[in-house]
Amino acid sequence: DSQRGDGTFEKSIEALRRLNAAGYGHGDSRRRLTVMANPVGAFLVAPQAALEREWKAELARNHGITFDRLIALNNMPISRFLEWLIETGNLQEYMERLTNLFNPATVAGLMCRNTLSVSWDGTLHDCDFNQMLDIPVAPAGGRRPHIRDFDPDALQARRIQTRRHCFGCTAGAGSSCGGATA
Q1: Where would a tag sit more exposed on the chain, N or C end, judged by fewer CB atoms within 10 A?
Q2: How far apart are CA 182 and CA 148, in angstroms?
Q3: What is the tens place of the pLDDT at every residue in 117-148?
Q4: Cα torsion at 37, 165, 172, 88 (round to 10°)?
Q5: What pTM was estimated for this model as a whole?
């Protein structure tokens, strides 16, 4: 609740129970249940495989919940987490940690290299974090990129828009919508 807001944890547990009751999370490849985890605090996520074993054991024991896969994500220094880092005086240390733990082996698997986010108005973004921050794909011809102008060749040739939050995806084992990237 401290990370996502009051009542969020119980609502999440109830949603997982409902998904289990509907047949998700029991090993059926047609009804896979994937959960996502990120740490609470100014540190990197634990190794994904170890975290998955721990979560499976704890959720089964404490709540009777099963799932198929866990995806571990680093915290991005944006939004409420950025505000918390600033308020607690942890921003500089966290950013140093992210940059010092940059792992070039993570780059090939980053979401921004093979996926686009499309906002409600059709604007294209390199990733969902850039979408949240209203950082569009590099403009072509001075225009804000839009889905109606989508060109796969131009997409492959584009310069990905990066900011400091991108170090969250390249630190340690990496972090992407598919989990660890290295």
Answers
A1: N
A2: 34
A3: 999 999 999 999 999 999 999 887 778 899 99
A4: -70
A5: 0.83
